[in-house]
Each structure stands twice: as structure tokens, then as C-alpha cells.
Amino acid sequence: MGKKGVLLVNLGTPDSPEVPSVRKYLDQFLMDERVIDIPKFNRTLLVKGIIVPFRSPKTSKLYKEIWNENGSPLLHYSKIQAKLLQEKLGDDYHVELAMRYQSPSIESALANLKAGLVESIKVIPMFPQYASASSGSVMQLVMELVSKWQTVPPISFINSFHDNKQMIEVFAENARKHQPESYDHVLFSFHGLPERQLLKCDHTGSFCLKSSDCCETLSDTNKFCYSAQGHDTARLLAKELGISKENYTVCFQSRLGKEPWVQPYTTDVLKKLAAEGKKRLLVFSPAFVADCLETLYEITVEYHEEFKTLGGEHVQLVESLNDHPKFIEALEEMVKA
Ligand SMILES: C=CC1=C(C)c2cc3[nH]c(cc4nc(cc5[nH]c(cc1n2)c(C)c5CCC(=O)O)C(CCC(=O)O)=C4C)c(C)c3C=C
Ligand SMILES: [Fe+2]
Ligand SMILES: [Fe+2]
């Protein structure tokens, strides 16, 4: 029997922090019709004419702040996760890592699986909460590529793992290192998403954003909603750590453009908490399985500085899942499920 193929796919990162690489990365990322979901002509004008030329130099500076001897943290941790998973699964499995944007590409990882004569492929988009712009985009590209093969192997996808028990335990364990009870408030800061993309997930058109608490419970109507899944992750984490409802806030960071994104925005929450006299914040970023630009710069540097300017004292990031053995066990279970 052939090996069972496993494909881990994370978002992607520039090949280097220099402006030309960042330009290439942002161009590929933001020209994805699931990321900037507007007609192609308008997307091309916006992305190639405005965002990429103006944003690349600024984003390059930020990447230079987090780049280290291992390169991009996101790629570095992703490689370790794939290696540890391969070791855990053993010789009956063939694990490949890909990035949705830049390298290693999904195309090359699939070619490696094909060359390895795998008998099946399990794809894990490495995003705990489903979003069309992340998991959906990975699934679409994998399906497009594999659909062109002469022999299409049995292929399956993990859609989301927002309530994965081991994942919750790892985040909680990482938080305990910081004595959560010594903080004035806890934030669960998720990567943002345009509201338009949330609304598109509600096929009934009757539920999403129709009330201020539409994401507070998961039901058949909103089970694929990124925000509702995020609220679920936050609830489970708060329960695991015994954090009461009034002591935490779910919020969304990294907004791009002028259109409304899912709210509340993390920056607004920082202002509100500072005005209430809160001094020390513990911040989880549970939309990511590895530390990356958004955690290591946006939270650790930008939000920390911003909160201090507002009168606060400290913003402490809870380390991501990275190379934690229990997270690798979680991946193993997903593969074997
Ligand atoms: C949870 C996963 C992610 C979703 C959903 C997502 C949506 C999304 N992102 C942008 C724009 C940018 N995101 C950027 C960085 C970035 N995004 C994710 C994950 C999700 N994005 C990660 C892991 C990272 C960091 C990658 C790394 O190398 O560390 C960036 C680049 C940085 C910058 O210029 O600010 C942009 C741009 C949009 C528009 C979007 C949904 C519509
Ligand atoms: Fe993003
Ligand atoms: Fe909702």
C-alpha cells in the first residue's frame, strides 16, 4: 500500500523582508478573489495601483523587525510543525508543507505528494476558524490543482478546528506561564475580516449582523461564521482558565481599507480599557497556530506602545501553538480522524 498524504497549508509570508519580495507577496495575496472580494477590474486597480505600491515599503519595515536568523517566524514554525507531525505519524504517512502565497507553493507540495505515489490526501488549512479568505482559499486552490490530475486521489479537508480540545489546552498552558489572574483584563484578538465577507457566509440572509450578539452562540445558521467560531474559541479558553465574562473581550485586529470590518476593533478596545483605568492586558491571538507578523509586531510592539501612550502599562502576548507537542498530537488526531 502507498503512503497516506498529508498537506499542511498556512497563509504565507514574503521570501525575504525586502521591498521587492514583500511587493510580490502582497500582490499574490491581495489579488486573491477570496481576499479582496470585489470585481477583478476594481481589485486590480486597488491592489496593483494603490495598496501594493504604498503598503510594501511600510510592510517591509515591519517584516524586518520580526525577521531573525530563521527567517520568517511563520514559515519557521510551520516547517517545524510539519517535521514534528511527520515524525509522529511515521513511515505510513507523507507530510508536505505549503503556503497559500509564495513558498513553498501548494503546487510544488502537491507535486511532491504525487511523486510519492500517495494513496490519499488529507489537507489541513492551518486556521482554527473557517474564513473564505483563508481556509476557503486554500481549499479552492487545492481542488483546482488536483482536479486536473489524470487520477484524482481520495482527498479530504479539515474545515476548521476552533473548538479543538488540545488546541485550547495549549493556549491555556501558554497563558498560565503569565499568571492570567495578575492581569486587569484579557483580550482574544482575532485577525479581522470585512463585514461583507461575514454576511456572505449567512446563506439565510436573516441572522448575521442582524443583532449585536449574533456571534455569541454557534448554531446551524452560523456554524461556518469566522466570528462566531472565534467567539466559541474564546469562550472555551475563558472556561478552561476560569476567566469570567466581564474580564475578557473578543476583538478583531489588522483592518485594511475603509470599509467596515468585524467589530469591535482591537485598537478601540485598547482605548476603552485604558479609559477605564486598566493597566495590564493579557492578549491571546487564537486565529493563528504560529507566531507571525500579526502577533510578534502588531500585538507585541504596536499595541503595547499604543496602550502605554493611552496610560496603560503592559500588553502581554500569549505565545502561539508553535512547536508545542500537544498541538502536534492535535494535528495527528485530525489526520487520523
Ligand atoms: C486567520 C487567518 C487570516 C485571515 C482570515 C486573513 C484575512 C485577511 N488578511 C488581509 C490582509 C493582510 N494580512 C496580512 C498578514 C497576515 N494575515 C494572516 C492571516 C489571515 N489573514 C497572517 C498569518 C498574516 C501574517 C503573515 C506573516 O508573514 O507573518 C497582511 C500583510 C501584512 C500587512 O501588510 O499588514 C495583509 C495585507 C485581508 C485583506 C484579509 C481578508 C479579507
Ligand atoms: Fe491577513
Ligand atoms: Fe454573527
UniProtKB/TrEMBL annotation:
SUPFAM superfamilies: Chelatase. GO terms for biological process: heme biosynthetic process. The lineage of its organism: Bacteria, Pseudomonadati, Bacteroidota, Sphingobacteriia, Sphingobacteriales. Belongs to the ferrochelatase family. GO terms for cellular component: cytoplasm. GO terms for molecular function: ferrochelatase activity; metal ion binding. This is Ferrochelatase. Keywords: Cytoplasm, Heme biosynthesis, Iron, Lyase, Metal-binding, Porphyrin biosynthesis. Catalyzes the ferrous insertion into protoporphyrin IX. CDD domains: Ferrochelatase_C, Ferrochelatase_N. It comes from Pedobacter frigiditerrae.
